[in-house]
């Protein structure tokens, strides 16, 4: 099932549990605006190359639309649409005053030089600058983009609108970025995992984790889980997968990845088949890379007791059913990875106030938001007698539905 069909299905199930009327259901599903642009840039060798970029703005009933921009060869409009919709429910679950959006450019950033990436980002910004803004739509990093990408967007946007640091989040600290934003999604994953395990009478210490993806989210999650006493037994990235049943030495692995641009070849580990990472023996599985990786083809072979969805939509609905029947507890993406957008909100607030928080305040506030989010999701699970995914969806959809009705937009 493609990402959009899967996301729509989860939304409809939630709308039914909430008893939303069909007109409101339809208006919540349809995106506010879908932008598609052609970005042509000169390559370093002088030849011209074109890439297609998207920004899908899904909903703004609760505030400015918010969501990352992804650079990846598999970016396609349906997936960006699904990711934008997920942002709407995610910001509502986190209870931050935003709607949802997502962007992407179909390119392979690993094959572009820094100057080509800069030109591409600036051309994309030139094409969408009129449609984003501090109080309309605020982009941030996602797969394949980073604080430098946000710095280029900020600079290009500011040429048209005057200096506007709050137009993007996940910026470098020197340009008004927030302390703690870089680690925030991974830290939120840790806090969310702690809340879930605590609810089951368990703690992170001593649990065996497997993590797919070792970029921003996966590497920070690994580091923080390691510091909290968890044992990270296997990780993977595009270069391959590695395992050590006694626990990988994460600080040394981080150094290795910096030097060798990937996890492959890390001493003190065995190389394993990258396709088997999700079915490795562990207590807790954390997908932190692409969507749709847990499907009906591998769900039956998953050995983890808990899945923490650090990636967006890693689990196909068919896999969801298989895993739920097996008793695997899944902490859904729209709650589990909400730490990133929550600290993006803190960054935006700091920019607007012109007052910088220290990192301890950022992390303490994040912990509060994730703790409250878990309680709110559990309350919805109890009210609607549903699993955590539907608990999170009903929570998010209900908050957006209420705002939509209050604004008189439901007709
Ligand atoms: N950044 C954020 O704040 C947030 C991100 N997310 C989600 O988290 C996920 C990861 O994002 P982020 O960490 O930012 O992205 P990054 O680009 O920083 O990292 C992505 C990681 O996934 C790896 N990867 C890519 N393809 C595969 C594959 N087929 N198998 C195994 N690993 C693979 C990459 O490997 P390599 O580096 O070798 O290419 C890299 O390690 C995405 O789903 C994103 O939407 C969710 C909330 C917020
Ligand atoms: O930080 C943000 O604004 C958005 C992060 C994001 O894209 C996501 O949560 O999927």
Automatic annotation (TrEMBL):
Pfam families, alphabetized? ELFV_dehydrog (PF00208), ELFV_dehydrog_N (PF02812)
Q: Is NAD set as a keyword in this record?
A: yes
The UniProt keyword set, sorted, is: NAD, Oxidoreductase
SUPFAM superfamilies xrefs: Aminoacid dehydrogenase-like, N-terminal domain, NAD(P)-binding Rossmann-fold domains
Task: Return the CDD domains for the record.
Answer: NAD_bind_1_Glu_DH
Show where the Glutamate/phenylalanine/leucine/valine/L-tryptophan dehydrogenase C-terminal domain sits: 178-408
What catalytic activity does the UniProt entry give for this protein? L-glutamate + NADP(+) + H2O = 2-oxoglutarate + NH4(+) + NADPH + H(+); L-glutamate + NAD(+) + H2O = 2-oxoglutarate + NH4(+) + NADH + H(+)
Give the family this protein belongs to, as stated in its UniProt record: Belongs to the Glu/Leu/Phe/Val dehydrogenases family.
Q: Which PANTHER family match?
A: GLUTAMATE DEHYDROGENASE, GLUTAMATE DEHYDROGENASE 3-RELATED
Name the record gives this protein: Glutamate dehydrogenase
């Amino acid at each position: 099932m493609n990402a959009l069909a899967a996301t729509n299905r989860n939304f409809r199930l939630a709308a039914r549990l909430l008893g939303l009327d069909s007109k409101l259901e339809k208006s919540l599903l349809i995106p506010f605006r879908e932008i598609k642009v052609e970005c042509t840039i000169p390559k370093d060798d002088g030849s011209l190359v074109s890439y297609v970029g998207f920004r899908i703005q899904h909903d703004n009933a609760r505030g400015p639309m918010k969501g990352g921009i992804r650079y990846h060869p598999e970016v396609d409009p349906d997936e960006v649409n699904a990711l934008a919709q997920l942002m709407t429910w995610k910001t509502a679950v986190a209870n931050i005053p935003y709607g949802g959006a997502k962007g992407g450019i179909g390119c392979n950033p690993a094959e572009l030089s820094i100057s080509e990436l800069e030109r591409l980002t600036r051309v994309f910004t030139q094409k969408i600058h009129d449609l984003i803004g501090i109080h309309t739509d605020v982009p941030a990093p996602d797969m394949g983009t980073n604080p430098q990408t946000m710095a280029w967007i900020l600079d290009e946007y500011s040429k048209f609108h005057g200096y506007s640091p709050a137009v993007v989040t996940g910026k470098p600290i020197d340009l008004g970025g927030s302390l703690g934003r870089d680690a925030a999604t991974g830290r939120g994953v840790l806090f969310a995992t702690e809340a879930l395990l605590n609810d089951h009478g368990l703690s992170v210490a001593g649990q065996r984790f497997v993590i797919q993806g070792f970029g921003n989210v996966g590497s920070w999650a690994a580091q923080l889980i390691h510091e909290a006493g968890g044992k990270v037994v296997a990780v993977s990235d595009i270069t391959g997968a590695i395992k050590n049943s006694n626990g990988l030495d994460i600080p040394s692995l981080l150094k290795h990845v910096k030097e060798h641009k990937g996890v492959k070849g890390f001493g003190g580990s065995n190389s394993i088949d990258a396709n088997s990472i999700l079915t490795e023996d562990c207590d807790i599985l954390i997908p932190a890379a692409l969507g749709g990786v847990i499907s009906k083809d591998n769900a039956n072979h998953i050995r983890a007791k808990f899945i923490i969805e650090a990636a967006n939509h890693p689990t196909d609905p068919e896999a969801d059913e298989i895993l739920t029947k097996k008793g695997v507890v899944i902490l859904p993406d729209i709650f589990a990875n909400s730490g990133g957008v929550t600290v993006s909100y803190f960054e935006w607030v700091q920019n607007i106030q012109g007052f910088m928080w220290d990192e301890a305040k950022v992390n303490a506030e994040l912990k509060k938001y994730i703790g409250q989010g878990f309680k709110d999701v559990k309350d919805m699970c109890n009210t609607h007698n549903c699993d955590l995914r539907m608990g999170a969806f009903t929570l998010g959809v209900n908050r957006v539905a209420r705002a939509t009705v209050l604004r008189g937009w439901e007709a």
